[in-house]
């Protein structure tokens, strides 16, 4: 399957991000069909040359790949209604947070090839980090197809145990918010020390961007990069010492554990 017909059930931000990434990779607009209840979102996609429709079942019946991109709390109803259109066993990719493949299989019908994914918001800029789990019905070719589709918005990494999707949520799914919080704190501290807001903002954001690029392109790990910036008895060491004494590492560990636990709770609640 080099150019499958891909149906997007739901035409929100994540669906549009994936479609934009695939179009940038050279997919033709005619390879997609998008379905959803909001005419204004469908009109935007239709203007790009995509086929759009308000009937989820009609969209899925045409597709070799079905991407479920509706809100998690709506997915059960949408999936159960969609099941009659899936007798041809397409590859189904879910980008809905918290919904397990067991729940999806119960709602969509048995023996479906299901991929559960956890993308994050930088996917809108094709800089996303997505973790994904495939059930036993997903073939190697369908894995490759998933990599092409979800890889269009950033980096895709597989986990071989579905429970690890909760850890993916804690690291990358919710991770952008952690960095935004740290940026907020840095900007506020810069202003408190006398910088104007725009200068504090630009210095903070460029520093975050530069640090991420340096880490991505370095041959050494982030701990070594930190050590190289931290001269003995220098300014950086003074700051790092405060972070360490205030328990930054433990705080991060506890926050991510809380995130993972909440992800598990939501899976249990939404998967009923």
Explained architecture:
- The protein has 272 residues and is of the alpha/beta class.
- 54% of the residues lie in helices and 14% in strands.
- The chain contains twelve helices and eight strands.
- The protein has helices spanning 13-24, 39-46, 56-61, 72-82, 101-108, 140-150, 165-173, 175-192, 197-217, 222-229, 235-245, 248-270, and strands at residues 6-9, 32-35, 51-53, 65-68, 91-94, 113-118, 128-134, 154-158.
- It has an eight-stranded mixed sheet with strand order 3-2-1-4-5-6-7-8, sandwiched between helices.
- Strand 1 (6-9), helix 1 and strand 2 form a beta-alpha-beta unit.
- The longest helix has 23 residues, at 248-270.
- It is elongated.
- The mean pLDDT is 95.
Termini separation: 34 Å
The major β-sheet equals: 8 strands, mixed
Strand content: 5-15%
The string of secondary-structure elements, in order, is EHEHEHEHEHEEHEHHHHHH
Spatial strand arrangement across the major sheet: 3-2-1-4-5-6-7-8
Name the shape in a single word: elongated
- Write down the overall mean pLDDT: 95
Count of discrete alpha- or pi-helical segments spanning 4 or more residues: 12
Question: What's the structural blueprint in terms of helices and strands?
Answer:
Elements (H helix, E strand, L loop, with lengths): L5 E4 L3 H12 L7 E4 L3 H8 L4 E3 L2 H6 L3 E4 L3 H11 L8 E4 L6 H8 L4 E6 L9 E7 L5 H11 L3 E5 L6 H9 L1 H18 L4 H21 L4 H8 L5 H11 L2 H23 L2
Parallel strand pairs: 1-2, 1-4, 2-3, 4-5, 5-6, 7-8
Antiparallel strand pairs: 6-7
């Amino acid at each position: 399957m080099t150019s499958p017909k891909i149906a997007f059930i739901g035409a929100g931000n994540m669906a549009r991000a994936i479609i934009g990434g695939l179009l940038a990779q050279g997919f033709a607009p005619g390879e997609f069909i998008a379905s959803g209840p909001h005419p204004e979102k469908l009109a935007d996609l239709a203007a790009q040359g995509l086929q759009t429709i308000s009937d989820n079942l009609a969209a899925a019946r045409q597709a070799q790949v079905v991407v479920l991109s509706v809100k998690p709390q709506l997915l059960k109803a949408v999936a159960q209604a969609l099941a009659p259109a899936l007798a041809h066993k397409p590859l189904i990719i879910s980008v809905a947070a918290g919904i397990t493949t067991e729940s999806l299989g119960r709602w969509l019908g048995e023996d479906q090839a299901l991929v559960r994914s956890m993308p994050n918001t930088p996917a809108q800029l094709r800089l996303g980090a997505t973790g994904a789990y495939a059930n036993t019905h997903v073939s190697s070719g369908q894995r490759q197809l998933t990599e092409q589709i979800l890889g269009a918005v950033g980096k895709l990494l597989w986990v071989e145990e579905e429970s690890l999707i909760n850890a993916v949520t804690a690291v990358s799914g919710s991770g952008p918010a952690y960095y935004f919080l740290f940026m907020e704190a840095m900007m506020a501290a810069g202003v408190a020390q006398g910088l104007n807001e725009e200068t504090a903002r630009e210095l903070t954001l460029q520093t975050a961007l530069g640090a991420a690029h340096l880490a991505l392109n370095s041959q050494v790990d982030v701990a070594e990069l930190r050590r190289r910036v931290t001269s003995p008895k220098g300014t950086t060491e003074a700051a790092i010492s405060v972070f360490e004494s205030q328990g930054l590492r433990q705080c991060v560990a506890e926050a991510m554990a809380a995130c993972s636990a909440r992800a598990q709770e939501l899976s249990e609640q939404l998967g009923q």
